[in-house]
Amino acid sequence: MKCTHCQTDLEVLRSCRRIRMRCTFCGRQYALHEVADQLDEETELILEKYNAGIYD
Predict the structure, then answer these.
(1) Tens digit of pLDDT for each residue in 28-55?
(2) In whole angstroms, what is the distance from residue 2 CA to residue 50 CA?
């Protein structure tokens, strides 16, 4: 997945009660529902490991 601001890769950022996506370059963070339509297969496999809803 790519950041909508700078087109750099996003990483999964997990905290105790939520999961967010964070840009590895600019640090911008996204809630899952903001980027749900852009999820690629690799990111979906990572997110399958966590027990959090898409609107958390």
Answers:
(1) 999 988 988 989 999 999 888 887 655 5
(2) 21
CA 8 to CA 3: how far, in whole Å?
5
Domain carrying residue 17: 10-52
In this predicted structure, what is the pLDDT of residue 23? Answer: 95
CA-closest candidate to residue 23, choices 41, 8, 39, 40: 8
Q: What is the pTM of this model?
A: 0.77
Q: How many domains does the chain have?
A: 1
40, two tokens: 């690629």
